[in-house]
């Protein structure tokens, strides 16, 4: 049988994809991170499904559950918050399933940064202002950043920076980006994006840290810094321009 790594979306239960919901409703076993995946999603599981909260399980225990379900002939819905392609810890699970000979499939989901952009009513790429988005995080004691991927280096590009897992380090983020973006650069933080308790903070690189601390935001948040967040004067996209020749391939 198959293990399905399903992107459960950023928080709102109805932001799972149709494909993800269909697989979830047909899987006799579901593994989910109770601290991140909305409990409402579990209502989509079959009535007799085995539900396993992975919040307190290490990688070996999780692998045991996946291999066990496969041996019993059961499909598995392995729910991950956001989209499995970014900061999801899916790689180590897939590696172990490869070693065990267990087939798997990845079902994409709505990533947190996309939900944050939606909450801000902003397109992250704006013609003539910014066409590059960098998804990154900050170094922590547990996981260092590879050489050349520190914020001071990435900031030299001037591109829109999107940081996951960095809210409690907002002072460090501001300090490393200020020399490249300037104090007046637009910045925003969206915590619990798409959830009922969503928090939206808008400001500049000079003011955003104070707002984050005042709001008590320390986790489940996305930090964005870049000029496209405040762009008001820009050229229309060529895609829908009346000057575009729509007969040319």
From TrEMBL:
Pfam families: TP_methylase
Signal peptide region: none
Any GO BP annotation: methylation
InterPro entries in UniProt: 4pyrrol_Mease, 4pyrrol_Methylase_sf, 4pyrrole_Mease_sub1, 4pyrrole_Mease_sub2, Cbl_synth_CobM/CibF, Siro_Cobalamin_biosynth, Uropor_MeTrfase_CS
EC number annotated for this UniProt entry: 2.1.1.133
Family: Belongs to the precorrin methyltransferase family.
Name recorded for this polypeptide: Precorrin-4 C(11)-methyltransferase
Species of the source: Streptomyces sindenensis
Source lineage: Bacteria, Bacillati, Actinomycetota, Actinomycetes, Kitasatosporales
